[in-house]
Specification:
alpha+beta; binds flavin-adenine dinucleotide; 13 helices; about 400 residues; 7-stranded mixed sheet; 3-stranded antiparallel sheet; 3 domains; FAD/NAD(P)-binding domain; Polyamine Oxidase, Chain A, domain 2; about 35% helix; about 25% strand
């Protein structure tokens, strides 16, 4: 969608082919039949370093669909310490405020703040290349409490991978871009379902700019031919592929092994429930890693129905039965919300290939007039996120532009 928009802005005539009946891909919404509500496959968080995404939303008159924190507040919950937050003061220079905020979390001291400084120094040197986050943390002697309360939750949330195997140079990039300033460190969430907040505005803008969108139209074949490309027997000047990697593999006749991880989203609906004390909360020592008050995020607090969702990232094997999973999450939410109430219903959305993991050696196919913009992050690039998707789309549009100027 980004590529289509950026190309049509530059005067290209663009046709977009989408296999599904609706555009949206991994940022999609559906109607939950029991509540009659729009429900996203899973909650999506943004941060202030998502500059390309902000620009795109702005260009589609959709920037108001993201609610931004005024400054970073990361609220966590653990059985012993209950609620506590990482909440750097807005009055001090951001790096100092962050160190003091880390030091002040229960169970932390100057030991954690000094460890942050060591980590920062290592990230700015060449220490990360070829290593996992766990190796980097060991090298910097990062104490276990900092790993448990900050590093592991951020790594799971941003990279959908455990610190044991996540790539250190990409993680360093995430930390340095996200924690560059008070503005970049803040978090944001869509205040309407993805269909209305993101996909609808993109489709409307693209259509207004003359992009023809063909839905329920899977592309089966694509080859370079002469000065152009042939797609399912039809001739075009050029093509951008922006598919899940398994579909790109098929289309390009490749068999690259891409490593992916699942994300499980446990949606629960309650009647007359007080909800969470914050729009989202990180769980320490809980099965749910992030808990979202979807109704609060969407500003739907007048209704009697409360929609909460727990996210479990980096799922390698899902051998827990869905009833047990919903029960366990509902039990954890009872503790987080201080009220033991049965949900009216639940729904589990497991995205099996939610993201492609950062790995070296993914080919960056350049076939004349075919630009592959599919998600295949290599070390040092951003992990698989909305921002990475938007940046890939912009880069692909620039490559196509270059071909014709
Ligand atoms: C549950 C979940 C939670 C996430 N949370 C976050 C988050 O909090 N923050 C964040 O930034 N990112 C998050 N992500 C990651 C983010 O959603 C993805 O990285 C991003 O949406 C990828 O976009 P894409 O356009 O590259 O791919 P996709 O969204 O997968 O789009 C590819 C499209 O290609 C279509 N297609 C497939 N085959 C064909 C074919 N043969 N012909 C035509 N079309 C085809 C598909 O139908 C699809 O619409 C999350 C992802 C998931 C699944």
């Amino acid at each position: 969608m980004t590529s289509a928009l950026r190309l049509s802005e530059n005067g290209f005539k663009v046709e977009l082919f989408e296999a599904a009946p609706q555009p949206g891909g991994r940022t999609r919404s559906f109607i939950d039949k029991k509540s009659g509500e729009w429900c996203d496959n899973g909650p999506h968080l943004l941060n202030g370093a998502y500059l390309a995404t902000e620009r795109l939303l702005d260009d589609c008159q959709a920037s108001g669909h993201v609610t931004w924190q005024s400054s970073l507040k990361l609220t966590l919950w653990e059985k012993q310490r209950q609620y506590f937050s990482l909440n750097p003061s807005g009055k001090l220079p951001f790096p100092l405020a962050l160190l003091l905020a880390v030091k002040s979390m229960p169970g932390h001291s100057w030991r954690s703040a000094l460890a942050m400084l060591r980590l920062n120094r290592a990230m700015n040197s060449n220490t990360c290349a070829g290593h996992s986050v766990a190796t980097l943390l060991k090298h910097c002697e990062i104490p276990a409490e900092l790993v448990r309360d900050m590093i592991e939750p951020i790594c799971l949330g941003a990279m959908n991978e455990s610190i044991r195997t996540a790539d250190a140079s990409t993680f360093a990039r995430v930390l340095s871009e996200s924690f560059a300033s008070k503005k970049t460190a803040r978090l944001g969430w869509f205040n309407a379902p993805l269909q209305q907040a993101l996909i609808g505005p993109l489709v409307t803008t693209a259509s207004r700019m003359g992009v023809t969108i063909h839905t329920s139209h899977p592309v089966h074949s694509l080859q370079g031919e002469g000065n152009g490309v042939i797609m399912d027997g039809e001739a075009f000047d050029a093509a951008v592929i922006a598919l899940p990697v398994y579909a790109s593999n098929r289309l390009l006749g490749e068999n690259t092994a891409y490593e992916t991880r699942a994300i499980t989203n446990v949606h629960l609906w309650y009647d007359n429930h007080p909800g969470l004390p914050e729009p989202f909360i990180g769980g320490i020592g809980t099965l749910g890693q992030w808990f979202f008050d979807v109704s609060a995020q969407m500003g739907q607090l007048k209704s009697d129905v409360r929609h909460l969702c727990a996210v479990i990232s980096a799922v390698e094997e899902n051998n827990i039965d869905s009833h047990q999973l919903a029960d366990q999450i509902s039990h954890e939410l009872a503790k987080l919300c201080g009220i033991d109430q049965e949900p009216t219903h639940s729904r589990i959305v497991c995205e099996k290939r939610a993201t492609v993991l950062v790995r070296s050696g993914y080919p960056k196919a350049v076939i004349r007039n075919i630009v592959d913009a599919s998600e295949s992050p290599v070390p040092g690039e951003l992990p698989a996120t909305i921002e990475f998707a938007v940046q890939r789309g912009e880069k692909a549009a620039r490559s196509i532009k270059k071909l014709f100027t």
